[in-house]
Amino acid sequence: MEIIAVSSNYVPGYSIKKVIMDLHWGISAASRGALGTFMANIRALFGGEIDEYTMLLGKARNDALNRLMSEAVKVGANAIVDVRFDTSHSTITPITRFIPYIGAFIGSPVSVAEIVAYGTAVIIEKDLEFKSASLR
Fold this sequence. Notes:
Blueprint: E1 4-5, E2 14-30, H1 34-46, H2 51-74, E3 79-92, H3 102-106, E4 110-126
Parallel strand pairs: 1-3
Antiparallel strand pairs: 2-4, 3-4
């Protein structure tokens, strides 16, 4: 089933027939591997965009949105309105930190990016009286 996701509170050309769930969400938590983190740290020394994190956050955002859409389909929605994203950051301590000798090299805290996509799951129907000129 195809689902429409929009950031507005309506879908042009459609009418909302039923609100299934006021707040529906999908979440993604992602981190870089040791090599990616190392490369990002090197880039950070010189300033500018850190490509490793840009790609990571882009993928996490898409994963969160895809999960939101999948969850909405499960409850019978065919659209999600008022889609928003929220991000946070946390640090976790890997288990390798507690292994003698190894922990000194690869036991540093790991940065985790968390992205939540949320919105209102609805059922929409084509509005037969809709005229595209009305958007102008």
